[in-house]
Specification:
By secondary structure, the protein is of the alpha+beta class. 40% of the residues lie in helices and 11% in strands. The radius of gyration is 23 Å and the shape is globular. The N terminus is likely disordered.
Length: 228
């Protein structure tokens, strides 16, 4: 009500009716748009219809390589490129959170509000939705109380990207880090997420996603632990 102070509603009788030719042109405007033969759009689909559907890897590889090429334009270095990939993935994480929660069973479809529950959500439902499997490990940093790590031994986003030798520090999984960051912020647990190369002899392409929560999130977690 406060936002409407100073404004007077117009009497309906003083508003002139729209000319008939404008109404008819507005009705004819959408006719040039192509619609499916069954007259249904994407908004008519059941949200659960594609729960187990899989995307062609060839299509994904082509699309993601184009995204990397687009992000690579006018960058100043590897960190700038990874930052752009992170920014591309962030809005996807914000939108995936309510969709995945909607598709989860009723007893588990609760928005995570604790750090451990959020990490388990990322490790399980989010990873299964994106890659058809869970992540490989969750770890808590021994040196910093606000840092956690999620490991993926074979990130799908890196399997079809050829990185030049002079850019061997580049990790295109920064896009997935942006998705994770969007999910964290969507849950109200703000964090900065980055992707790091953690290759071993057994898993040369291993990537570690470092999740660094803000201090107020850790303080809130400590208060909730103290109430138990």
């Amino acid at each position: 009500m406060a936002a409407t102070q100073g404004f007077k509603p117009l009497p309906q009788s003083n508003v002139p009716p729209a000319p008939s030719h404008q109404a008819s042109s507005a009705q004819r405007a959408p006719q040039h748009l192509r619609t499916p033969s069954n007259r249904k759009t994407i908004y008519d689909r059941n949200l659960n219809r594609t729960r187990t559907a899989e995307l062609s890897r060839a299509s994904f590889a082509y699309l993601f390589s184009e995204m990397v090429s687009y992000a690579q334009k006018r960058v100043t270095g590897i960190q700038d490129l990874e930052r752009r990939l992170n920014e591309q993935g962030y809005p996807l994480g914000l939108r995936l959170l309510p969709l995945i929660l909607y598709r989860e069973p009723t007893r588990t479809s609760v928005r995570p509000n604790r750090i451990l529950h959020l990490l388990q959500f990322v490790h399980g439902p989010l990873w299964r939705h994106l890659f058809g499997r869970t992540a490989d490990a969750i770890e808590h940093s021994s040196s910093a109380n606000n840092e956690y790590m999620i490991s993926d031994n074979e990130p799908l986003v890196n399997q079809y990207i050829s990185v030049p030798k002079e850019m061997n520090q580049l990790n295109c999984a920064a896009y997935v880090a942006g998705v994770i960051e969007g999910v964290c912020d969507g849950c109200g647990l703000k964090a900065a997420v980055s992707a790091h190369n953690g290759g071993t002899e057994m898993w040369p392409g291993k990537t570690v996603f470092l999740i660094r929560f803000e201090e107020e999130v850790v303080e809130r977690e400590g208060l909730l632990e103290g109430k138990k």
